Amino acid sequence: MCYRRCGSTHKVRFLLLLISTLTTTSICKASSGDPYPNSTSHGTPQNGSLSKGYLIVAATGFYVYGTSSKRYANGSLRALLEKVGSKWNEDYSAEHGKFGAGRASKKSGGEMPGASHENGLDLDLRYIRTDKAKKGVEITDSQYDREASKSLIKLFLNHSSVTHVFTSDGTLRNQLNDSRVQNWAGHDDHFHVRIKDPDGTGN
Ligand SMILES: [Zn+2]
User: Fold this and answer.
1) Residue 73 belongs to what domain range?
2) Strand pairing of 162-166 and 181-182?
3) Long-range own/partner contacts, residues 32-35 (CB < 8 A, 24 or more apart)
4) pLDDT in tens, 96-134
5) CATH classification at residue 149
6) What is the pTM of this model?
7) Is 4 buried (19+), middle (13-18) or exposed (0-12) by CB count in 10 A?
8) Ligand 1 centroid to 123 CA: how many Å?
9) At the N or C end, where does the chain have fewer CB atoms within 10 A?
């Protein structure tokens, strides 16, 4: 039981608790570099699944295309995409328009057409067009803008979390001259970015 004489002690304790709660909350908010936490990519991109996938939606610098049910990603991939989008917006979108982000994984990952995209670490992106239209372009089309596409891919390669970029454009691969940029047939109308599993493989 509490009597009047100890009421002030309780008030002080309450204030201290309040202050420590507020301090902890603001520190956590300030130090959190992880806007989309708690995703887990299980298995491998070729045979895996995804827990707490985040839907990729249009944001600064990019639009989305394709089926939303196949646009879920590990939170780290969504965060990376948004960082690249912001940078693209600062340096390139006035001249080249927004870029398009498409297929990632299903909400819980698992089987997808093709040989990957199963655990939220893969993302397909359109090459940049010369006319800023929000539609796809093939590397053999006259509207294909290799220079601008190269600039976009470089923004991804600036992040060490990117382990692979797949493209069918041999000239682009030669110019980028980065061992992470690799040939994969079927990447004539999009390139494909893969990140490393943020919390390691085997879970
Ligand atoms: Zn792909």
Assistant:
1) 40-195
2) parallel
3) 34/75, 34/76, 34/79, 35/75, 35/79, 35/82
4) 999 999 999 999 999 998 889 999 999 999 999 999 999
5) 3.30.1380.10
6) 0.84
7) exposed
8) 6
9) N
CA distances, 55 to each of 38, 46, 115, 161 (Å)? 14, 20, 21, 19
Q: How far is the CA of 176 from the centre of ligand 1 (A)?
A: 19
Tell which residue, 97, 105, 161, 163, has the closest CA to residue 127: 97
Distance between Cα 163 and ligand 1 center (Å): 14
Express each pLDDT in 128-171 by its tens digit: 999 999 999 999 999 999 999 999 999 999 999 999 999 999 99
The answer to whether the beta carbons of residues 126 and 190 sit under 8 Å apart is: yes
Asked if 39 and 55 touch (Cβ cutoff 8 Å), the reply is: no
Distance 6 CA to ligand 1 centre (A): 66
Number of domains in the chain: 1
Distance 162 CA to ligand 1 centre (A): 14
